[in-house]
Amino acid sequence: MEEELSEKDFEEEIKVQISKGAFKSKEFYCENCDKKMDKIFVNAEIPNTLLTIHLEVFRCEKCKKEYLNGDQANKLDRALAISKAIDKKGIVYERSGNFDGSNIFVRFPAQLIKGKNIKAEIFPVSSTEFFVHFKKQKQKLLE
Question: Which of 58, 95, 102, 113 is the most exposed place for a label (fewest CB within 10 A)?
Fold first, then answer.
């Protein structure tokens, strides 16, 4: 039996706390069959590329429905974002490259990269294409 929600249902503030390992589920139960799902490994093809990604999937033996836990869903999302970048679909930021005599550098808008103490990891894809990953650098303690 489903209940109808009204505007009054949203007037009260609700606080939710999510445990650290909440999205790293070790087991799933099928919402259709209410049976424990089997953990299997699959190689999923990334559209429009020759790439495949190795994923841990939970599959219901009875209805064959499949689920990903949070970590595996993030892994798939990243692979799909990379495939969009390869196909030059999705959001693209175009910037001028500058040369200082020995290095070429590109400036990234601050709105894209939040925070300070950022370190860039550069992964060459070809002689003219690179993936850049920005991560926060741990601050060194002064002795």
Answer: 102
Length, in residues, of the chain: 143
Cα–Cα distance between 68 and 75 in angstroms, integer? 10
CATH of range 25-90; options 3.10.20, 3.10.450, 2.60.40, 1.25.40: 3.10.20
First to last CA, the chain: 64
Q: For residues 106, 112, 117 and 122, what is the CA-based torsion angle, rounded to 10 degrees?
A: -50
Digit-by-digit pLDDT tens for the chain (143 residues) are: 566 777 776 676 767 666 666 666 678 888 888 899 999 999 988 877 788 899 999 999 999 999 888 888 888 888 888 787 777 766 777 888 899 999 988 888 777 777 777 888 888 877 887 888 888 777 665 55
